[in-house]
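pasting for the record
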Amino acid sequence: MRFEDFAEQVDFSKKTEFEKVIYTAFYLKKVEKQAAFNIVIAFDLLSSIGHPISNLSRMKTKISQSRKFKQNGSKVEYILAADIIQNLNKECIKFLNDTEIINSNSELLDESLFIGYRDYLDRLIRQINACYKYNLYDGCAVLMRRVFEILLILSFEANGIKNEIKDDNGDYVMLEKIVIKAVGSTTLNISRTKRDYSSVRDLGNFAAHKIHFNTKKKDIDNISQNYRVILEELLYKSKLKN
């Protein structure tokens, strides 16, 4: 877990500067596996994520005088007290050991607009944002295609026309055919064009199937606004959003 993600999980915005130092020391021990921590490095770490210590000298004095810390043979190296570690273990274990948490914060898609309609969609939206956040652009493109396809299918189902996108075996047809049906459907009355829809499908296909293709940030950025508009419209067409 990155330090900025840890800070977000424990909500540094509501912590005092001294509390931030305590949590930083805990992070360095639990995540970075540092038995002792250097307060100068800890201060730099806090500053790097936008939480600088306002008075370094005063904070050093406070740390040296606090029973929450024990000096480790140097004026700048300290160990967090055992009882503090124990308490923070209880508080933070839910996300430090949780392999299900997806660290995302509307990096590509505004989660206030797209989260809360279906649990499985929530996880996919967060994965899209997390992929974009960590520069995993091929994964981002494939997931964008997947959410697009899901919402298209849900739109056909919600409007009672799902048989229009099923083959003779009752299985859903390929996305290319679903797109053609969607933009031509008078029932759905989609405002976007086939070209708009194809841009999302094509990028996802390239990322998933083109052997020598690597998705770049600009590829995602080029379709991001169009994609957001498409998804929002499909939320209404699928009747997930009123």
